[in-house]
User: What shape does this take?
Amino acid sequence: MKAKGFTKGIAQKAAWDMSESEVTPESVFKQRRNIIKALGLGAASASLSTNVQAGLFDVFGNDKPKKAFEVSPLTFTKNQSYQTSEILTPENKVISHNNFYEFGTRKTDPQDNAQGFKVNPWQLKIEGEVEKPLTLDYEDLYKLIALEERTYRLRCVEAWSMVIPWVGFSLAELIKKANPTSKAKYVAFETLYDPEQMPGQRNRYVGGGVSYPYVEGLTLPEAMNELSFLAVGLYGKTLPPQNGAPIRLVVPWKYGFKSIKSIVKIRLVEKMPPTSWNILAPHEYGFYANVNPQVDHPRWSQASERRIGAGGLFSAKRIPTQMYNGYGDQVASLYKGLDLRKNF
Amino acid sequence: MRVTPKQLFWIKGLFHLVALTPIVFLVLNVFSGGAGGDPVQYIIHYTGIGALNTLLITLLISPIAKKMKWPWLMRTRRLVGLYVFAYATLHIAAYFSLDLLFEWRLLGEEIVKRPYILVGAVAYLILVALTVTSLKKLMSKMGRKWQTLHNLIYLAVILVAIHFFWSVKSEIIQPSIYIGLVIVLLSFRWRKLIGFFKD
Ligand code: HEM
Assistant: This one.
């Protein structure tokens, strides 16, 4: 059954409808189409990108139909504590600029290669140091806990950022349902491992040399923090696969790679769990990965970031990066006494 | 194979076309959305690889000309070399304008603080020097010094390979292949390269 089945209900006026001055995604699309038309490039560019895509699929030895993944509208309430006056990153940019190495390392690969991704049926298991292990089926992801919308800043470790309206529920609520034992100190997450569907897991070159399945982790207090969020949608609709369908983590005070996608397992554990980027390059990516303008990545500065907004190529802005991505009020207390230079 | 001036003219035209085609593709991809919603990194990587590929092709010209006994091919080398400079310039311009958004201070800081950027910048300075001195007039004026200066191209290609290897976040297969290619291309000239150290 499709998500549609349980999304009828009061039509929501979504947060992004309210903000006055922004350029909407539609107008961006139109603008771009007009430029292409003006240049007389329409036909040429359309055939080009399908050719490029066809080429990619030949490489992967896989010719799935190129039909776009179907997303469906969700019913949710708006969490008033997490609205913003910042300009949102338009939906078309949010879904076409992704790091999801399971589908390839280029920013365009996930959208190009993930449209055939199957999310239903899905199983998300909550297990380990819990009294009541849980298994959520596809439908449960949208039903078990009432959905809410929160707009968060997303700061990538590569020094670009977006502002995205997510739909989902608080991670803490889910964990509470499983009733962690007193031994539980950390939470370990795991992405689906399915080389059939994920070319990056079949081929080291496509997958950027990450050892799969992708794993991430939080301390239990981090996971129970009110900010930690499990998203099942964005811009009012179910997640497209390139953004981590059907369910992904969003921890907005940490660099984007902590916000693991397409989760199948949440395990409460006693010891600090391994995390994928830390395994790959321990001197560059730590376990905590809190956004911190004072601690540079060894190869680039983290003091400022390129905010991807609504306009064209030159419209992005470089803005100073905020400590904990601006969420210090909620999370700074988690790190009292911790040397953030060592625990980067 | 002998080539008339007229044929050489057409061959050079073909080289221009081949060198410019990727730019057309880039523009089309950026405007059609084929380069993603935020094509900045795509453009930086695309032009960076373009510069390196063109640099490798430049280094292939003289071995091929010798092997095939095609002296006319040598006369395309300057043209191809200038495209190396053009692609490298686009690469850096894209980084500075689209990624850093014209923050001079940040550019300065990054060049000083990041070894991979510093290595790229040194390579670029070499390319600038070679481009400026590629004028025929200067060539004859400089005499032997010209050759000495232009031998820096070997240093440049090594630096660019290092720049690439150092810049990637994870997968090192592609930069490793390029390092391999650089070694092969330099090995064609090992006598000359060893000569540098004997002098
Ligand atoms: C001041 C000089 C230079 C600067 C500031 C610079 C900057 C950069 C940056 C920011 C990247 C991307 C790193 C990332 O993935 O985030 C990069 C990659 C690269 N650069 Fe440069 N660069 C310079 C000179 C050069 C030159 C002279 C060449 C070649 C002739 C070159 C070729 C490349 C290549 C091949 C890559 C890798 C592209 C890829 O990963 O696909 N760069 N450079």
In short: Chain A has eleven helices and 13 strands. Chain A touches chain B through 46 residues (CB under 8 Å). Chain A has one domain: 6-335.
